[in-house]
Specification:
homodimer; alpha+beta; eight-stranded antiparallel beta sheet; 3 helices; 28% strand; globular
């Protein structure tokens, strides 16, 4: 994976939080995921397929999911109900959709978003894929985006 | 979702277990997922996209994951390590790939498989998608396949 594949996800995530949620994200250092990495309690997952295939996981602390959903829905949810799950899935979908538009050379399409819940859940990738992780913090808590793509063929010369 | 969308996943799953793992699956009754449903401890997830989009979740008890991986790899794993995770991801990929071939009218492509671990994890769908669940039992334990597809457009008349 190269920077040109990751940057669209970073800009899409920060733009989405800023414009839809009025929430500024502060980016931490990029790292390759090792097996000990753990996501936060709520993870939106969306599959990508096209000339390459992959997955995007947007993992956030419970408080971030509640505040983000509350901002979208103009309410104050206190538990992870179906509205919060829909909001997390939709945010994941928008982030992946905006990034996809910047990666048009791969003709990507998106699967449905799933949301995984559980304090001790782990989302694992095939061992030949090492996802790139970018942590963020915001006023509500921590967010992590992971992008795992299968080896991307070089574009043909024009 | 109609039976013609679900049957390819049922036949693909039973065929894959029979031919790759020499394991016969006994099918239980089909049901629509309600929010209380819980998957087993190990879940393979793969996204589908094309003329429709969706997700397949293949959830299995820990013992099934260990025995299935052991059969594929000709070893006897006792914990869910990266080999077992790869095996569960690969089985999910094969099941989805075979079913996709029988649904060619939707021109589906597959994302990378992820594997979710955790005793108390839940994999949720958008609230407008009600996945169809088909439980199975085998000599190793219980397996559940869930298929969630967005509303499928009617095929155009020829």
């Amino acid at each position: 994976m190269r920077a040109e594949h990751v940057n669209p996800f970073i800009s899409s995530l920060t733009d989405t939080f800023q414009t839809m949620l009025a929430c500024s994200l502060n980016r931490g250092g990029i790292y390759l995921r090792d097996s000990e990495s753990c996501p936060h309690e709520v993870s939106g997952i969306i599959g990508l397929s096209g000339i390459t295939s992959g997955t995007v996981v947007l993992s956030m602390e419970r408080e971030v999911a509640l505040k983000a959903a509350g901002t979208l829905l103009m309410c104050e949810p206190t538990e992870i109900d179906s509205d919060v799950i829909d909001a997390v899935g939709e945010i994941t979908n928008i982030v992946a959709g905006q990034a996809k538009a910047q990666l048009e050379q791969y003709n990507l399409s998106l699967s449905l978003p799933n949301v995984v819940l559980g304090r001790a859940h782990r989302v694992c990738y095939p061992s030949d894929v090492r996802p790139i992780c970018i942590p963020f913090t915001c006023a509500w808590g921590s967010v992590l985006i992971e992008i795992g793509l299968a080896a991307v063929p070089e574009p043909a010369l024009a």
